[in-house]
Amino acid sequence: MVVLWWLVPPLGATCLAMLWASWAGRERDEVKRDDSAAAMARMRRAIERPAPQREKPIPSTPLEPSHGVAIRGRGNRPSSGSSPSR
User: Fold this and answer.
1) Of 53, 32, 49, whose CA–CA distance to 41 is shortest?
2) Measured between alpha carbons, how far is 18 from 61 in angstroms, rounded to an integer?
3) pLDDT tens across 26-72, in order?
4) pTM score, two decimals?
5) Angle formed at CA 61 by CA 59 and CA 62, multiple of 5 degrees
């Protein structure tokens, strides 16, 4: 029975996570929400404003393609006429 005490910390953490999730997902009051015409006009002006331009365009392709494996340089290969030294 003493061996099962290792289950207590994960069960406690799970219960705390469930309590936090139920608290974080609760219904919020609508008091903080601003649906006035002035707020909607401010939002419309903010959306219609042009976005700032970047100085340099972002390249759409990576500079060096990733193959997923390490590739050795071509200068490390021995010539075909010599035998490998061991």
Assistant:
1) 49
2) 43
3) 887 766 777 889 999 999 999 999 988 878 777 676 666 666 777 66
4) 0.35
5) 95
